[in-house]
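ingest -> validate -> predict -> emit
validate: passed (alphabet ok, no gaps, 178 aa)
predict: started
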Amino acid sequence: MSTHYFIGIRIPGQIAEKIGQARDSWELTTHKRLTPPADMHITLVFIGEDRFGELEEIAKRLGQIGQAPFHLRLAGVKTFGNAETPRIVYAALADSPELMELQQAVGQQLDSLKLSTDPKPFVPHITLASRWKGGSLPKDWPLEKLDFRVDAFSLFEIHPRETPRYKEIQTYQLKGRA
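emit:
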């Protein structure tokens, strides 16, 4: 199996732990995979496998992004897929022009490369549970509207059989415009 990659924002440890504790309090037994706090992140761009050997160029281009750090706020829990049998349960994020700007900047840096990124529209989220297995969903999804600072983003490598699954291979600090 070939290695896959994505560009994303790691959720700070204390925030990820609080999100994980909230999710665990729901006794969510409807999904096969519950995201461990150490793997919680926001995907900016999914790359997949590096079929054209562009990883080094991707890493170089990402270093050219200049943006100041910003804050994000959780905005409740939502799902992807059928509301009765959702394939993904996720923590939603409040609207953030800065997050959208960062995601667009990352996408623009990759535009002229051969890789084929995920064509779906960007929906900022933190996956909490995936792979529906059946059962009854909780009636309530209490999740504190936590606020956290984003001061970096990373190029990640996916290791499906390990925990944590997502390993940062290069991290880029947000430090403002040059």
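The two ends are 40 Å apart (CA to CA).
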